[in-house]
Amino acid sequence: xLWFYLFILSIGVGGFFALLVAIxxxxxxxxxxxxxxxxxxxxxxxxxxxxxxxYAFLAFLWHKVFEKEEKIHEVALSFLGFFLIFLSxxxxxxxxxxxxxxxxxxHPTFFAGLILFFAGVFFTALRFLPRxxxxxxxxxxxxxxLGISIINSVILPIxxxxxxxxxxxxxxxxxxxxxxFWFPGHIHxxxxxxxLVSTWILLYKERxxxxxxxxxxxxxxxxxLFIAQFYVEPKSDLGLDLTKTAYAIGIGIPTLSxxxxxxxxxxxxxxxxxxxxxxxVLIYFLGALMGYLGVGMDLRVPAHYHAVIASILVGIMxxxxxxxxxxxxxxxxxxxxxxxPYFYGFGMLLFVMGLFWxxxxxxxxxxxxxxxxxxxxxxxxxxxxxxxxxxxxLGGASFVIYALKSTLxxxxxx
Length: 414
Fold this sequence. Notes:
- The protein is 75% helix and 1% strand.
- It has helices spanning 2-23, 38-66, 72-90, 108-138, 141-166, 173-180, 182-204, 212-215, 217-228, 237-265, 272-293, 300-326, 335-338, 340-360, 376-408; strands at 95-97, 104-106.
């Protein structure tokens, strides 16, 4: 359960930073936010919720599905790493960079936290590796996809080390870290794709046809990106084409295939698990559509990936509530609690649509304040974004509070 606690804690911290970042971009409210901490808040949000949080939940699933006990030293490394990442963002240490995939704070505390967190993940994945390899040809759909996530999680930290060795050290700060995390960051997205599909399979509850050969795409492309690090400049034309192809085919085909299959098969099934499954699939399809339409260096980029991440979080919220009951922390899922994933999902729909529409007018990303607003339409779209962010943060906070409260209290029937 320790990985589960880390998931709850990191998602809560990520939501806190998300609220600060959203306030910094919301008309009128932006004036209340100290601009100095905008980028630190952005780093704290992404790294806490979207890296630590999702990985912690995935590690929890590894232990639950493959029925292995947690090792204290593995979880402790990741807990300590997360605390250092949180501390560096909260206190405004060093210089915050808004590079892609792993937003960075140039400070020893942050780097130590990142190393410790991924060390915990690496040692955990390494312990599961023999079982993961067997699941490639013997496991069911869930075991196969989770097995691939384990293999990719062994590849990812090694990829980070190799990337550091081969990256051009003469690059300036932003360019250096952008290149450093480019290929490893793309490999990480394949891990997230495995988490998404695994969540859908668990929410469906019934046996799912194993799209085994499509599963292999989730492994072949990360291996390809891993090898490419030795020969291809990350941000070169070839590097960009390679990563775009990896996303479009390696992630797009398996996830869209599983999503469509489970959505169609579950059309007449409207219990809590399968209705949230369909909501997650719809949000993901919206995010995928935004990605396939093509994005520039404006707010359509965060609109795309926030929709994808929101689809994962909607599924994880529903699955966590199911696990709380299954593990005996609650007797039944209260009706008002069942509404939380929908509340969060609706808020995120407003959030991503506001971002996407504003992006169509060229509104830049990762910029605090409201000086970039040039017409009334953009103002309205950004206000919709602000409203959506408030609703989603309220939904996320409600989920975190309920889940944490439920896990900490004793079961009433004991």
